[in-house]
Structures are given as C-alpha cells and as structure tokens.
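Morning!

This is the sequence you dropped in the shared folder:
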Amino acid sequence: MTDMGLDGHARRVLVVGAGIVGLSTAWFLQERDVHVTVVDRGDVGAGSSWGNAGWLSPALALPLNEPGVLRYGIRSLLDPAAPLSVPATIDPELWLFLTRFAAHCRWSAWDRAVHANLPLNTACLDAFDVLAKGGVETTMVDAPITALFRSPRAATGLLRELERVTRSGLSLDYRALTGDQAREALPQASENVGAAVRMDGQRYVDPGTLVQNLARSVVERGGEIRGGFEVADIHTGGGTVITTSSENEPITSDAVVVSSGAWFDRLSRAHGVRTQVRAGRGYSFTVPTREPVPGPVYLPEARVACTPYQGSLRVAGTMEFRRPDAALVRRRIEAIIASARSYLSGVEWDERTDEWVGSRPVTPDGMPLVGATRAPGVYMAGGHGMWGLTHGPITGRLLAEQIATGERPEELRALDPLR
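The structure's back. Tokens below.
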C-alpha cells in the first residue's frame, strides 16, 4: 500500500498528542531523519501516560472484549462500586459504543483482536530496548507479574486466557502457584490468597518519568514540543497538510499523526475513520508499604493493578465511561481500596497520595487504529485502551516506517483505521 501525496519523502511531520504513542512516533521518525513537531492540548505526558500502572506486559496486553466482561458489565450497572462504571446518562454516542462493544464480546472477535495485536505484543519489548540504546532513560525493570486469587478455581479464567494467547503464537512463560508459594515470593500476599499465576519475562517502568525522558530526547535531537496547542482542524492539499489550532494558528507539514488519546474522535472522523474511540477512565494512587514490593501485582477478581513506584506502591483500577475531562469521582478510589484490601497485607491504605484519574482511548473491537487515512498525509495512532504504554513504542516504530517509506508494514494491516 503506497500513501499517495508523500511518495516516501515526508521530511516534516506534525504529531498531535504528547503521550507515549505520539512521542514514540516522533522519536522513531527522527531515526529516519524526519523533522518533527509535537503539539498537545495540555502538557507533555499529562494524560493516561502519567498515572497508569506502568506495566510493559505482552502476557497481559489482552483485548478488553473478553466474553466474561459482558456478563460482568451487565451486573456492574447495578453496582456503583463495581470496577466497571457506566453513568446513567442519555448519551447516544456512548450507548452506540457500548452496543458495538457488546457485539464484539464473543470468543471469535476476541481471538481476532488477539491475532491483530500479536505483532505489537511480540515486538513491544524490543522497541523499548531500541529507545534505551538510543539514549532514552526508560526506567525499565525486569520483573515477573504475579496475579493473586482467592482460590485455584478462580485462577482458571486467567490460565485459560493465557493458553488461548499462547495458541495465537505469542511465547509466554507462566505457571500456577499455591497460596503459600505466592506468599513466599510476595510479602504483600495476604492469608486470603489461595492461588496465584506468575508471569515471567515482563517489565515495568515509572511511566511519568519515562514519558518526560522520551520528550527530552525528542527535543535534544532537534524536535519541537508545544503544549497548550489544541488542534481544531486538519486540511490537506497540494502535497502539504495544514493543521490549525483553536486560536486559528496554522502549522504546515508534509504529514500529520493524530495520537490524541481519548480526544481522538474529534479529528479522526473527518478523515474517514468510522470506529469510535471512547474514554475509558482509570484511577490510580500511591500508598506506602511496610516491606518493599518485589514486582507488579495483578488482582484479576478486583480488576486492580499494583506496581512498585518510587519506593511505594502505585495502585490502579476501574474502567469508567465518562467524559475524558470530567472530575475525579472520590468513590471510585474508595471502591478500588475496598476490592484490593483483602488480597494485600502491609499496605498503608490511609496514607495514599497522588490520587489521579486519566482517560484511556478504548475501541469497541479491542484493536487500536494505526495507519493512513483517506486524506493524503494524515495518519492515525490511537485506541490502544489500557495498553498504550506497552504498545506505544512499537506502534511509533511501525508507523514511522509507513510514513517515511510510503509502504504499510504487514504488522499494521489488521489495525487499519479505515476498517
């Protein structure tokens, strides 16, 4: 597939969005001698790239549309403290999205999404290694992720998912543990834990620091980053792209990449993208622990992720479908604590800091939108859901190849934003 209008000679590219996906795309474009300008409606890495759990986890970068989520979601509508939250509101766009999401909550659609994401999962850690070799301080730490359960029976769901992912072609290293084995490896596992699943070959980072370091590298290599630039429109013609801010300031480039996270739809629809992207808001906070936490902890039954963070523990959870700029809802933090408390000991829940909410860009079919649009020189990179951090650098690497050469990598075929 050749992108008309560029002929493989893009030399000036504007990237809309200064999160992990946008900055990674900019960095890898610089590897191909492309001059980049990155703009963002807010500050660098201020969205979901800052407050997420920081996992680099090909084992757990699974599509959200697993069939059990639909049954769980229907029950959750009646429980205001449930990890999945849909506000009681008259929003036709939201209900259209949820209807489409529900239609994809079947194993055939889930398997299709797993296969579509397989190239990203296979190469995601290699892309981080390239950043590190290129001088970016990634803050990466190699560590297993340990999933805790109340009973061996409760662990079977995750084990079956991992088996299905392995059959898709992804090489995974995981094993089941007893409750005692979990407590031996993880001091924070409480007496309520009856089983665990340990996934080796995973990593974690300090996500905010990583994104700031990546932005610094982009600037040091000659790029420009501008905050407070909210894009209003994108026009193409004559082999150039003109992007206009809400203040009517234009920026001219050979190509533009839209990687604006939960605000993706505002620009994507005008260029032939029909797949919706909604804000799936997640919450996090930081708590001290009595003993150091040796690695990330996953609580699938509570749908909570925990990560060692600056000498403490970052706790993240919830999938809340509200406006991306809506205020933090205090009861969501309290619900995370209530659901996680019984699994973990030695955690000072009442001394939490850094309470945060951010919006993850979610698609109804579990696949991101990466590639060219109908408009010459306009590209999309969004809809990664909860796995934007894991998939950000490899997305940027593949998309930079497409922009610089005019040829779409085979790895991006299933992620076509015009599907």
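Headline: The first strand starts at residue 12 and ends at 16.

More detail when I'm at my desk.
O.
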